[in-house]
Amino acid sequence: MSRGRPPKFDENQVLDTAAALFKRDGYDAVSVADLCRETGLAMQSLYHRFGDKAGLYREALDRYGRTANDPQITALEADDDALAAVRGFVRQWKRHAGAGPDGGCLFTQAMARGDRTQPEAPDATARAYTARLRKALAATLRRAVGAGQLAADTDVPGVADALLTLAFGVAVVGRGGMPASMIDHAVAAGLALLDRHASGAGRG
Amino acid sequence: MSRGRPPKFDENQVLDTAAALFKRDGYDAVSVADLCRETGLAMQSLYHRFGDKAGLYREALDRYGRTANDPQITALEADDDALAAVRGFVRQWKRHAGAGPDGGCLFTQAMARGDRTQPEAPDATARAYTARLRKALAATLRRAVGAGQLAADTDVPGVADALLTLAFGVAVVGRGGMPASMIDHAVAAGLALLDRHASGAGRG
DNA sequence: TGATTTTTTGAGCAAATAATCTAAAATTAA
DNA sequence: TTAATTTTAGATTATTTGCTCAAAAAATCA
After folding, report:
1. Is the CB atom of residue A8 positioned under 7 angstroms from any atom of strand C?
2. B151, B159 in Cβ contact below 8 A?
């Protein structure tokens, strides 16, 4: 067993709470005092465990990647019906657009904020996780092509990047309070993009 | 003529500088001292003219809307070739993705940051200008339909919103430092979306 | 038990922050 | 000139910020 006094807090719970705060208000607008109040951690406990505010932010981003990003990858890979999997990915964009505790996207926050000054920039985490999702998305599309669900000449990287970029757009537009119909139209466009390449279902 | 001592600074120049700072670093990361140093304004001059930091931010957003958003609307409306105008709109997304002083998008920053607590929230300005662009984009697409450039059954609001959402996504993805090929693919997807509805040019 | 390790507690610090006070400087109108 | 008006100047203030110091509390191991 571990030697010293046992921690009073659940680490993942702390990270989830911190991630929610950073997602809602942005890194700069969340103070360490806010973090302590919301997570229940004493100040020194926070610094002892996470080093500093940026350290907690980085770990919160990582936790978010594991709990919000990776499951999407898993869902893409798990579904035997590759095209249906991608469609499912598109359909759940609405979640990123909402304002509630489940809404919004921390990676969009992190990327919009940027911070390329430091070598260990926090948005590097967001970038890395997004790159993995991008890869998985392309792989699933390739699988759909292989299964004959999408046309053989489908530009797989092009479609994958278009969908992913659209997903980020949905997060911004939703967060910005633009009309909900914009989100619906974006989702519809994502699905239509897939339909366009679906074999044997061409339009016109 | 105005009565008192004449201002030493050019107002628009100050707003442009402020907008560039806010765009690059975000509202919270820019201090009033930064703003004074970069704009050359004395602290008291800044507060005398703009009230407070938020006031300067709001006016900078407005200035950005006039100098970066509205010209896009004008370009859409001015071009007799409606479809070409929309294509031009899509092609210049790359600019929003860049990192230099011309790169990035202040409205994306403002929307991602959010701030729906206040009634006169700063992102309301971004929302209002974006709404105008959205309207103009739809109008131009409708014009293209009327001119027979796009199919009569084109879902105009759907296409407009898809393009605009994609544009926001490009800004985030570019700012986040994702591969440049993502931007290229997003632009290509925007153009392909138009091609898909172009009359007499169906694929497959 | 006593020594060791780790976490918690609570107070507090230096620096940066947005914003203000008072007064001088530069212009126009009378 | 004189008065009125507006902008600039420099110093300052109260608050908030991220962060640290010293010591007590709770566990394990000898």
Report:
1. yes
2. no
Instruction: Output phi, psi for A51, to 5 deg.
Output: 85, -65
- Global pTM reads 0.93
Asked if B182 and A28 come within 8 Å (Cβ–Cβ), the reply is no
Task: Look at the block and give the residue holding tokens 């662009």.
Answer: B133
Amino acid at B114: G
Closest C-alpha to A72, from A170, A139, A149: A139
Structure token digits, residue A153: 């000449």
DSSP element (H, E) containing A130:
helix A123-146
Which residues 34-93 of A interface with strand C at a CB distance below 7 A? Answer: 41-45, 48-49
Is there a contact between B125 and B58 (Cβ–Cβ < 8 Å)? yes
DSSP letters of A1-33?
A: ---SPPPSS-HHHHHHHHHHHHHHH-TTTS-HH
How far does the CA of B5 sit from the C1' of C24, in Å?
12
Q: Is the C-beta of residue A8 closer than 7 Å to nucleic acid chain D?
A: no
CA distance B52 to B62: 16
Tell me the per-residue pLDDT of B162-186, one tens digit each, with 9 for 90 and over. 999 999 999 999 999 999 999 999 9
Whether residue A122 contacts residue A130, with contact meaning beta carbons closer than 8 Å, is answered with no
